[in-house]
Amino acid sequence: QKDADYYLNVYRSLYKMVKLVHEVISAAREAKANPEKIKILQRDNTAALRDILRGTYDKLVVWNVPKGEPPHKPSDGYNDASNLLKLNKQFKYFVKGLEGDQLPKAKREMLFIKLLESIHPEDAKLVIQMTNKKPITGVPKSVVLEAFPKLLVKP
């Protein structure tokens, strides 16, 4: 895993790529003070990051997938089929009141498992944590509210 992380960082530095969501969350967790956490979240801001934060902390977002961890096979981490920066758009199928309500339950759950298996395993853990409304360790709601004041509709 360390070799994979090394090569991913080299690739990113060559192509000026954005960080994956779990990398931003990890950096924010490691930051000592809240102002530093806020700066990291704002600097590495992506739609996928905001979706994870809102899905975790906004009471208006109600998930339409079973609680707990679904049976899935995590990806390798260095050979992912896709990433959350692209696939976060699929969240609309898993939120009550949106497009996924039209899908049969089995189809919606299959799409959710496919999403988890297509992204980095650490991002998949964040998605599962989000759908279970489990707060992100080291990134409390107060930090999210300061970093993105208009993100949460119903904190």
Task: Please describe the topology of this protein.
Blueprint: H1 2-15, H2 21-30, H3 34-43, H4 47-57, H5 84-87, H6 105-118, H7 121-131, H8 141-147
Could you describe the 3D structure shown?
- The mean pLDDT is 90.
- Helices cover 52% and strands 0% of the residues.
- It contains 8 helices and no strands.
- It has helices spanning 2-15, 21-30, 34-43, 47-57, 84-87, 105-118, 121-131, 141-147.
- It is globular and about 45 Å long.
- By secondary structure, it is mainly alpha-helical.
- The chain starts with a helix and ends in an 8-residue tail after the last helix.
Number of strands: 0
Order of secondary-structure elements: HHHHHHHH
What radius of gyration results from the CA coordinates?
Answer: 16 Å
Low-confidence stretches: none
Oligomeric state of the chains? single chain
How can the largest sheet be summarized?
none
Cα distance spanning the termini: 36 Å
Beta-strand percentage range: under 5%
Look at the helices and sheets and give the structural class.
Answer: mainly alpha
Shape: globular
Count of discrete alpha- or pi-helical segments spanning 4 or more residues: 8
Q: Give average pLDDT, whole number.
A: 90
- Estimated helix fraction: 40-55%
